[in-house]
Amino acid sequence: MAKVKLTKNEQKKQKDALKRFTRYLPTLQLKKQQLQMVIRQVESEIEAKRDEIAKYDSSLSDWIRVFGEETGIGEKIRIKEIEKDTGNIAGVDIPVFKKLDFEPIEYDLFTMPLWVDRGIVTMKELAALNAEIEVLLEQKQLLDDELRTTNQRVNLFEKVKIPETKEIIRKIGIYLGDQQTAAVVRGKIAKGKVVKEA
C-alpha cells in the first residue's frame, strides 16, 4: 500500500474510488458469469459436432473398402477457404463459422465408380464439421483468455482494491477524528487560560 496523505481531500478521493470499485465490481461479476455460460455452450456445441462426426464414421464403416479403391478423388478435394463472420460476446470479438468453400472438382463421370458423387459430398460434410470444430475451439480459447482476465480483475477488486481503500478511509477517519479531538482540547485549554488571566 502506497503512502497516503491523511487529509480530508484524500479521504474524499478514496471514498470516490471506493464508489467506483463497488459500482464496477458487479459488472465484472456479471461478465464473468456470462463468459462461463457461453464457454459451456461452446463446449457442448463442440461435443455435438464431434458426435456428428462419430455418427458419420460409424455409417461410413460400410464404405471403407469402397473408399479404398484408387480413384484419386481424396486428393482432388481441396479447401478453398473457410468463411468466418465476427461475433461479439461480453465484449470479446470471436470468429463465427459461416461455410467452407471448396475448389471445383473435375472428373470423368464415365470412368469413375457410381459411389464417387456420394463420397465427395460426405467428405465435404466431414471437412465442414471439422472446420466448424476448429472455429469453435478458437472461440473457446478467446473466451477462456477473456475469462481469465476478468477473473483476475474481479479478484483484484474484491480482494485487494476494495479492502485496501476501506482501510485507508478508516485510517484517515481515525486520524482526522484524533486531530479534531486534539483541536477541541487545545481550544478548551486556551479558553481556560484566557478565563484564568481575565
TrEMBL record:
A molecular function (GO) term:
proton-transporting ATPase activity, rotational mechanism
Q: Which InterPro entries match?
A: V_ATPase_D
Name the keywords, alphabetized: Coiled coil, Ion transport, Transport
* Recorded superkingdom: Bacteria
Give the Pfam families listed for this entry.
ATP-synt_D
Q: Spell out the coiled coil positions from the record.
A: 32-59, 126-153
- In the UniProt record, the signal sequence range is none
Q: Does the keyword S-adenosyl-L-methionine apply?
A: no
Entry similarity comment: Belongs to the V-ATPase D subunit family.
Q: What is this protein called?
A: V-type ATP synthase subunit D
Organism of provenance = Candidatus Thalassospirochaeta sargassi
